[in-house]
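Handover notes (outgoing to incoming on-call)

Open items:
1. LPS-assembly protein LptD: sequence verified, structure written out, both below. Nothing else pending on this one.
2. Nothing else urgent.
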Amino acid sequence: MCAARTPPGPILKRRTDPTRSPARFAIAPVAAAVLGVCFTHSAQAQAQDSGLALRPSLRLQEQLPAEVRSQTPSFVSGQRIEGHTGQTTTVEGEAELRRHDTVIRADRLSFDERTREAHAEGNVLINRSGDRFTGPALRLNVDTFKGYFEQPEFELLSNNGRGDATRMDFHDEDHSTAHQARYSTCPRNPGADWMPAWLVRANRIEFDNVEEVGEAYGGVLEFKGVPILGAPYFTFPLSDKRKSGLLPPSIGLDSVSGLELTLPYYFNLAPNYDLTVYPTLMSKRGIDMGAEFRYLQPDYTGRLRGSFMPSDRLRGEDRWGYTLQHSQSLTDALNRLGGRGGAGLALNLNRVSDDDYWRDFPRASATLTQRLLPSDAVATWSQGNWYASAGAYTWQTLQDIDAPITPPYDRVPSLGLTYSRGDLGWADKTGSLALTMYGEYTRFESNPLLTGQSNGERAMAVATLSRRFQTPGWFIEPRARLHTTQYSFDQPLANGLRSASRAVPSLSLDSGLVFERDTSYFGRAFLQTLEPRAFFTWTPYRDQSLLPNYDSGATDFNLATIYSENVFTGNDRISDTRGVTLGVSSRLLDPETGAEIVRLGIAQRYLLKDQNVTLPGGEPVQERFSDVLLAARVQWTPRWLFDTTFQYNPTTNESVRTTVMARYTPRPYHVLSAAWRLQRGASEQFDIGWQWPLSGIFGPSPDAVPGHALGPGQWYGVGRINYSVPDRKVVDLVAGFEYDAGCWIGRVVLERLQRSAASANQRILFQLEFSGFTRIGSNPLQTLRDNVPRYQYLREEINPPSRFQRYD
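LPS-assembly protein LptD structure tokens:
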């Protein structure tokens, strides 16, 4: 019998790998286990004397297989041990029982080898897989983990939850019940009565570690000692695992709809699909019944969301909206039918009840808050060099009497076929000849009274032949294209014809040089490039003034589109661009990482002849020199980013469009961005966004804590303001504060969204987030993510906790 004191720490460190057979001296009988304890302590002492150090093992396992776990030995240690082999062993003075993932410590510990029951008294501690329980007395079966604990205090590893109770019943290793319990995720201050910022009081709390959920009976949620939510029964999560149940209510105040109260309920129907219903009471409108269904299968995935409000009191009619996104692979089905290649189906359906839906329900869905709602159904097929598509593309246009929109054309149907090859021949180490042929048939339909032109059909074929010669120092790419189109109209054109055709050839030559050199600026080494580029295009004039315009529009004038043949999008207008574009760019690259530190660029187009093809109502372009485009992007350090584009008219000697943007991100949760956008004669706006800890305004702020922002006790300012200079008013505003108390987060955000030129929606969002438990209030997180550039949530996912983090 070992009467000497045996410190518990070295025992676990020195024992054999738990995935292997038990050590020779750590056999099942307790007396022999005690001898094993003495042996391992002696070996550990020798290792320490020799200067050896233990290293972390990659073979440590959170859970052992059942067949291995049943063979793990039990270790008992203490100052005095008495007992008989195969019967009861009593340990007094710093008593400890250790087995795999369970540790029991107490002043006095009795262990019955026959029943496998342990009875502990005085300063009892249990650590099982990182969950810790402390109290005055315990009775527990170490094999079945069935027993009870008197007046325990407990800490849960999975979500850092903690609490106390008058009694804790252990039903098995995964289920327990706390009676007259208190629970919170707030820390416990040693030596003080535990009164956290928030807690749950309940007659009974049942913990289920399999479903990772807690169930409170007769519970109430208190914040700062004030009851704010009570129910005879509610559940709360013990991890991020999905579960069915009530979600936190959402409360908001809208300037138009009034008080908004949402009580969502989540149905975890299966691992691959779920349903959320979210009825919303709007005090001035009525009840909006909403739901969202998500599904995921090996061959398809999708999301269906919809809402219905019977008899909106402000509008006097039923209001509804739905959106469906579905994506599916049809390859297996095609192969079973004897087909070849890959096939797919994509659905994007969006519809609402009326034109005012987008302004009355501005937070219903990101898609449904637009004024142009697309609905598409597209089937695709591909094999080798071939690609085909067949689809229907329709629009719902939500009109505003103060700002009407010309509705786009529905394409019902639109059929396309593409053949593409990049290895036709004439190949060498610099490249090969490439051919692309595209054919399309489309039926265009809309309201002729709104569009001012006839519906019709369009068939077209486009062939492109190109050859790119390229080396590390230069490239040349000649390209030839032929664009042919055939139209058929429901109503005759102005010249009386019901059909029309057009064939437009186009030639272009793109070329560029790349020079590099090692240099340094301000004591910093760089790889500098100089990249001149010349682009020549020749497209002859074809009169297209009598043709309808179904899908063409002007491209945005920038440093990408200035090197293109056609200045229009779509296929109803092919510009007669006959000119040369000259430009040059230079970059500073980090020679070690390749990161782009500085980029400068300038380009201008010169027309050899007037550009006479225009959009309906447009004027021919007679100026030979286009506006000059200048761009600069500088990110000298990861903290600072400066980006600007400048469009300058050399004829009028004034800027046409200017955009200047700067962003400062010195540390995590510190971001400040500002932008100025000017389009002369149209708009001028200032845009400012920020997320910044208030402690960092007048002094240094704390370092970031993994998963917990800058730690507890921090205030953050967050927001974004968009100001229109001509209107002299704020267009959109999102601004507020966040406070991180460690175990809870408070947010208050003011949101103002412009609905029309004369009206706006305003609401106040207030939320309390109890870490690892629930959120109460109106959730502003999505609003902050959508509006504040580089906004960071104050709680980020980190690696799941391990039982080895709490070693006893």
